[in-house]
Every structure is written in structure tokens, then in C-alpha cells.
Please model this.
Amino acid sequence: MTPRTIVITGASDGIGAAAARTLAQAGDQVVVVGRSEEKTRALAKELNADYFLADFAELDQVRALAAQLKSDYPRIDVLANNAGGIMGERTLTVDGNEATFQVNHLAPFLLTSLLMDTLTASNAKVVNTASMANTFGRLDLADLTAGHGYSTNRAYGTGKLANILFTSELHRRFHCKGITTAAFHPGVVRTNFAADSSSWFRHAYTTLLNRFMLTPDQGADTMLWLINGTPGKDWLSGGYYARRALAKANPQAYDADLARGLWEKSEELVKS
Model:
């Protein structure tokens, strides 16, 4: 069989790196994307894989990444939008967007959109890393820069909610053109997540609670299940999953009008 080409963002550490190792060992052509040059290059060398660098806090870097991927890979079988994170105080990016919202939603939205011709021609899977944190998000299309009542945790939850809404709308718009897609919660994974944020999450990741968390390999399980499984048989396109099963999300995640509105607002915000 011809090896699949699988692009994983946020692949320099955590579940992205764990998934990349498993897929590369199985014979897939893995393309790793990360922000840290040192970590991303080291993983790529370990796997004998191609790698690219991009900071999702700058949309021009996402545009450059998409152009490189389109040029180098005429076929992309899987795009795993795994990059993301929780921030500290409210800040705006150079693009004028609230940083948490841009890194977690707008950047993967832009990358997917720019690769859409390649993805549809490849009948690709788009797998989006969300989080159970979506349950304490609240999406307000009139305040996507979180100018009113900002909190670190709510901003992160809203970004993860946006991942799920993006997944459902991506399915609605492009399933007929060959795209299958799913979002998933990896579990609470033992990584350096939230270390640089002001969120109470960081205390759990740096205290004895750390020992009760999943390993990156365990956290990557549902991602790999989605990547390796058969849509329509093993899982349903457009759904949100945890532990290889459909999961309950924030009530806003099931609002089709909100999903459509978010897509349209996102298109406006990523225009160059």
C-alpha cells in the first residue's frame, strides 16, 4: 500500500509527538509541524520525517506553511489540527485577534481552508484536537476578541468550543466533496500544558496531581483511532469524541446557526 501523508500540527511535544511516532513506525509519511525549532527538528530527525515551523500567533506564518505544504505534497490524506494552548492575560496578536482564539481556532481554520483543494482531492480526514474544556466556553459572535468579561479559562474553553463548531460546519460544507472530520478530547495528559499561563490548570500540571494524568501515548489514542478508523463505520463525520466514543459537548456546540456564523466570521478575520 502507498503510505499515507499525514500532517500533524503541534507535533513537537505531547500527544502530537506521540501520534507522529506511532504513525511513522507503521509506515506512514508523517509531516511534523511545530513552533519550537529545537523540538520539532529533533522529532523529525528521530522519525526521518519532514518538518515545518510555524507560530500560529501570526497568520502570515500559517499562510506560508499552507503554501509550503501545497507545494511539497500533492496529496494529504490526513490533516491533524493539534496545535493550541492556553494563554495568560488577554492579549491581541499582530493580526488583531485575541491570542487564545487565534491560536486554537483561527489558525487551524485558515490552514484547513488554504489546503482545501488538496484535502478534497485526497478525500482527506481532518482531525481536530478539542477538549472537555469546551463545556465552560461561551461563544459570542459579537465579541470574538473577548473584550468583555475575559478570563483565561473561559477563553480557552471558547477556543475548544470553536474547534467543535468548526468540525460540524466543515462536515456540512465539505462532506459531499470527500472530506470527513471529527473533533476529540484527548483526556488530561501529562505535558507542560498551561505552564506559561495564568490559569489554575498549571497547578495541576506541576504538582503531584501530574502522576494521575494520562501519558502522551494514552492521550493520543483517540486521535490515532480517528486517523486509522473508517468514517461511517468506526466513527461519524462531524462528531465530537472522547475515549473512542461520541461525547457530550457544550450546548452551543449543537447550534447549526452558530456554527455557520462562526465560519463566516472566521473567514472575515483571516482575510489577508
Observations:
- The beta strands are 5-9, 29-34, 50-53, 78-81, 125-129, 180-185, 239-242, 245-246.
- The longest helix spans residues 152-174.
- The mean pLDDT is 93.
- The CA atoms of residues 226 and 233 lie 11 Å apart.
